[in-house]
Specification:
With about 250 residues, this protein is of the alpha+beta class. The protein contains nine helices and ten strands. A hairpin with a 2-residue loop joins strand 5 and strand 6 (about 170-175). The longest helix is centred in the N-terminal third of the chain and has 18 residues, at about 20-40.
Length: about 250
């Protein structure tokens, strides 16, 4: 994206979400419940749950909250039943947008996502019309390379662990791998004494739409509004926007 980095729009969303701590806690908690209910409640035997717990820990969700979420999934505590779905659409200037929803009310979620698209100059699209633009990839982020470790040395270790592509990012590294290799890459880093700041499966665009000026700001407002929706878990888009515009929108809160 910005600077030809796939990491840019993922980073934009993460920074925005981190400012909304309570909403972020709700999202990661729902993800834990969903993954634990859809598979084994033991993260050692459920990669999706392990990733959800990693994300929860990365945003400092208390351990007790994580344990309660798993108990709600297993029925040991009362809780709502969530379902997962994906909506597709286009933002201003034809930017492709994937919206992953985890909700206890399908009708409310669909209406809410449609309203946000309409309000911010976008439109919903039929299933499959946008999804093909994205590839599912494992994403591992090291925000800061530890002192005493050379970047080249760490990159070689990442490749040996299964990383297929690596980007440098402000003193750190961003690595992409096959989703099935994500756990091995993350655990391999931990065995080296390096804790990833992010380790998750994400959607990476095959091509991007370069935007500037008001068009870029409109797209970022759309992404931000979708992220604010209580039913929306993740938003993926294929924009390429300069850093200064992202910073301007972020500063506007």
């Amino acid at each position: 994206m910005a600077g030809h980095s796939k990491w840019a729009n993922t980073k934009f969303r993460k920074e925005r979400q981190d400012k909304k701590r309570s909403a972020l806690f709700a999202k990661v908690t729902k993800e834990i419940v969903l993954q634990a209910r859809n598979g084994d409640p033991d993260p050692a035997h459920n990669a999706g749950l392990a990733q959800a717990i990693d994300r929860a820990k990365a945003v400092n969700l208390p351990k007790d909250n994580i344990e309660r979420a798993i108990k709600r999934a297993t029925g040991d505590l009362e809780g709502v039943i969530y379902e997962e779905m994906t909506y597709e659409g286009y933002g201003p200037e034809g930017v492709a947008v994937l919206v992953r929803v985890v909700t206890d009310n399908r009708n409310r979620a669909a209406a809410g996502v449609r309203h946000v698209f309409s309000k911010h100059g976008g439109n919903m699209a039929s299933a499959g019309s946008v999804a093909w633009i994205f590839d599912m990839r494992g994403l591992v982020v090291i925000e800061q390379i530890p002192e005493g470790i050379e970047s080249d040395e760490l990159q070689m270790s990442l490749i040996e662990l299964g990383a297929a592509e690596i980007e440098e990012s402000e003193g750190g590294l961003v690595a992409y791998c096959e989703p099935t290799d994500l756990h091995a890459v993350s655990e391999g880093l931990r065995s080296l004494g390096i804790e990833p700041s992010q380790s998750q499966v994400t959607m990476v665009p095959k091509n991007t739409v370069k935007l500037e000026g008001s068009s870029a700001e409109k797209v970022l407002r759309l992404i931000d509004a979708l992220d604010d929706n209580e039913d929306v878990q993740e938003v993926f888009a294929n924009f390429d926007i300069p850093d200064e515009i992202m910073e301007k929108v972020g500063a506007g809160d």
